[in-house]
UniProtKB/TrEMBL annotation:
PANTHER family: FERM AND PDZ DOMAIN CONTAINING 2, TYROSINE-PROTEIN PHOSPHATASE NON-RECEPTOR TYPE 13
Keywords: Nucleus
GO cellular component, one term: nucleus
Pfam families (UniProt xref): Y_phosphatase (PF00102)
Originating organism: Canis lupus familiaris (Dog)
Name of the protein in question: Protein tyrosine phosphatase non-receptor type 20
Basic and acidic residues bias (residue ranges): 43-57
Residue numbers spanned by region Disordered: 1-60, 88-109
Amino acid sequence: MSAPRKATAESGEDEGDDYKSKDVISRETLPSSSQKKTPRSVTHKDLENADSSEKVKLSVQNFQPSNYEDLFKDATESESIWATSGSFLRDKSSSEDEELAGPSQTVPPQLSGIQIVSERELAQLAQVRPLEFSFREQSIIKDSFKMLEKKVAEYEILQEFMTLDFKSLPGAFNSGNELRNRDKNRYRDILPYDSTRVPLGENKDYINASYIRIVNSGEEYFYIASQGPLPSTIDDFWQMVLENNSNVIVMITREIEGGVIKCHHYWPISMKKPLELKNYRVFLENYQILQYFIIRILQVVRKSTGTSHFVKHVQFTNWPDHGTPASVDGFIKYVRFVRKSHLTGPILVHCSAGVGRTGVFLCVDVVFCAIEKNFPFNIRNIVAQMREQRYGMIQTKEQYFFCYKVVLEVLQKLLTFD
């Protein structure tokens, strides 16, 4: 069999949808990392009242880092037309039109209901702060900032990305390439490794999704990276959510971008009517529309048993059709809100192909956790770990640059914080 071709801007969410590769080859398998934890189930109240992380007051004096924004001119797009102002929310008691809760509309009317998160809380979350911030920790972060800034200025990041790009990774794609499973793949050249794919049910059925475990300073961060559901895989997608007891779904795409379907609708359009599937019934319990993302509280009921599972669905709506978001701050708030919301199971992340924007999210989330815990971090190492578990994670140099841009923004704010 043939190998998937190199994942580029032609494959997936920033990559167009017409694939020229025909087959996917088998490679030597990696050690299995598909064990999963099964913590307690989550209730509606748990989702809406997840505690925010501890606030620690920090101070740094006489540090004025240079403005690095110009270093990224070529890696970002102009301000997205999809940005809106203010936040809009809704709950079950409202009788107004509810279609905005379904498709990712961008300029909604004023709505009323139960607020899930305030702008003040999001602003606090965006301040990523270490648990300890003594003079020694300040010096370490200052040195890290200067080192990363130097990498950007001297174009070392591009060299880093190219080194990762040419690294040969062993792994077999047999399950995704089986004739019976080919129609379950959104893109023919983005398939999960057999060793890390997410199995469904007792028969270990196929879905295009991979377990990703990233280890940093001895701590493990557990995710599922998935493609956006197809009409024929929506039941499978919800089965995966329930079997892994995931309480957060991260969606980093709009359903249609540039006239191309990137992900099929897998949640209810209205709070008045659930989404009826073969094996599941999905209810929209509440939602809130913010400037950069939409939060939905969903209840998933398994028809065969009547058991229910609550999920917080967080959709980033401000990623442009090409390139990366113009607003770093909006993406920081998004990542931090997801981390705050996580309670059980792996965090389930998807875009269109489940490798580009998904990889950016995973990388940035791990770095933020490292900063909070005073741990060192290495972006190249994080991306290398992801690629060992799912082919093509972080597809373009612009996405790789964006990871650095986000981290530099956080460190700069930290070092100028009073």
